[in-house]
Amino acid sequence: MPELSTLPAGELAQLHERLRTRYERFRALGLSLDMSRGKPCAEQLDLSNGLFDCVSADDFRAADGTDCRNYGGIEGLPEARVLFGALLGARPEQTIVGGNSSLAMIHDTVARALSHGLPGGEGPWGRLPAVRFLCPCPGYDRHFAIFALFGVEMVPLGIGPHGPDMGAVERLSAEDPLVKGIICVPKYSNPTGVTYSDSTVDRLAAMPTAAPDFRILWDNAYAVHDLTDSPPVLKNVLDACEAAGHPERACVYASTSKVTFAGAGVAAMAAGPHTIARTRKHLSLRTIGPDKVNQLRHVRFLRDMDGVRAHMRLHARILRPKFDAVQQVFESRLGGKGVAGWSRPQGGYFVSLDAAPGCARAVVTMAGHAGVKLTPAGATFPLGRDPQDRNIRIAPTLPPLDEVRRAMEIVALCVELAAVRKLLGEEDLAAL
Ligand code: PLP
Question: What is the whole-number distance in angstroms between the Cα of residue 45 and the centre of ligand 1?
Fold first, then answer.
């Protein structure tokens, strides 16, 4: 297939008509397909139904005899701190096991930093004239929403195959004391699927920062979400920071939202000793204790990291065909046409699709009219502003395989159609 930009105008116009006819045929089907959010499908949730049998009316005590039905244990059950410490790459004593959401823990870290400051700093960030965070893009929309909520200025940075643009990260962190940190999804990054290289982790850990209380918010949401048998290995950021003499720099988060039940899982965080002590103190004012029944259930169900990995292989068996279907459709419909690029992730929950510049909004609108709901264009950038209007996040996990295939056919068609309309000089790319 020749690149579309090399086609003579007449051929382009004919192609436009053919694509439009196909699009109208899809539209007439009145489909309703949702590819907008990274949710596990019901078959994945079924894998964890054993959780319902892990505690009972006469079996609700932790290993040390703790009655899990009662208040207390602010930092989590001891056995949960061991399991989640292993997941986070942390010692149990630097691990706090909390409620159901790692995003809530990240939100609370930012809120606490603004209201009270963080160990190593000079008081509440909220008293400063501005607070800035480095945001590798495309990134996770809900991270950006937290920063927007609190008025934290987001500094967008590029992300490549090895992680964020480290030259820019090092320069901005060293120059500007109001740059208080960077938000990272270091493994199978949402949505690019990138896993940070060892060198990226080492540079983040070691770089000089103008802010003494600079933090790396390390959202390792996809730590164990491999789709292949030889997954990339992410370097331990807590160890790297400690080795570089910055033991308080990294705050690491994860949860079982996409391991067991999304919304009824368990979340955890780990950080340097002073940061964890401060977090524990604040947490004890915020809650009298986490849901230890759920923590106990999870430890009994998952047991240890071998148990977690075996469980994740069952997820991969369900998800791999869906991710393969996305690749097959994009390759066959868009390959060689010069109108799109896309990621080929080895894990995680997303495929990142780059349409031709200026086309993403039109693609999402057209796909919506044909019954395919996508994450809004721009969502992968701070404040919803994709400067090139080209990135679209594809979430193939929730719908059944045949729906994924059909939805991707429609998305690929819309990508090509928008590109052809742009080449033809149409003003409103989505006005069919
Ligand atoms: N972090 C990332 C990068 C995610 O992609 C998601 C969900 O999509 C979350 C956090 C949400 O995690 P939780 O359910 O633990 O709040």
Answer: 16
